[in-house]
Amino acid sequence: MAVPARISIITLGVADLARATAFYRALGWEPTPLSTDDITFIETSGSMLALFPTDELAADAGLASSASTGFRGVTMAINVESDDQVRRVLAEAEAAGATIVKPAAPSPFFQGLDGYFTDPDGHAWEVAHNPDLLPA
């Protein structure tokens, strides 16, 4: 039996759960009824995003906690239908409180634009128009 090739939940460790939840709400991503005062769940296309306090997430995973807000070796990607949408999504993220760390530019890996933003906790998100991986 092989490990299923799917991402069901991505859990982000956050410094301030209320602030993180407010940020994702500002993107238009509403928490599900499964959310509590201790964790926020957001349904996404084909998977779920969870927001959970960093120290509690580290303890749950059996890892040492880190207060660093630098790159954590993880990025998430949002593939959109056009180059114009890349620009629009980056602008909307910035308006919601994101920091643009790479403005929209031609990708060296595919035909289309990509750019990156970080959320208030430093989690990196790529916004891409990769015609070979159009959203369902």
Brief summary of the model shown:
The chain is an alpha/beta fold. 24% of the residues lie in helices and 31% in strands.
Notable traits:
136 residues, alpha/beta, 2,3-Dihydroxybiphenyl 1,2-Dioxygenase, domain 1, 2 domains, four-stranded mixed beta sheet, three-stranded mixed beta sheet, 3 helices
Description:
This protein is of the alpha/beta class and 136 residues long. It has two domains: 1-60, Roll (2,3-Dihydroxybiphenyl 1,2-Dioxygenase, domain 1), CATH 3.10.180; 75-136, Roll (2,3-Dihydroxybiphenyl 1,2-Dioxygenase, domain 1). 24% of the residues lie in helices and 31% in strands. It is built from three helices and seven strands, in the order βαββαβαβββ. It has a four-stranded mixed sheet, with helices on one face. Strands 1-3-2 form a three-stranded mixed sheet. A hairpin with a 5-residue loop joins β6 (113-118) and β7. The longest helix has 14 residues, at 83-96. It is globular, with a radius of gyration of 15 Å. The model has no long low-confidence stretch (mean pLDDT 87).
What's the helix and strand layout?
Blueprint: E1 9-14, H1 17-26, E2 40-44, E3 47-53, H2 54-61, E4 75-79, H3 83-96, E5 99-106, E6 113-118, E7 124-128
Parallel strand pairs: 1-3, 4-7
Antiparallel strand pairs: 2-3, 5-6, 6-7
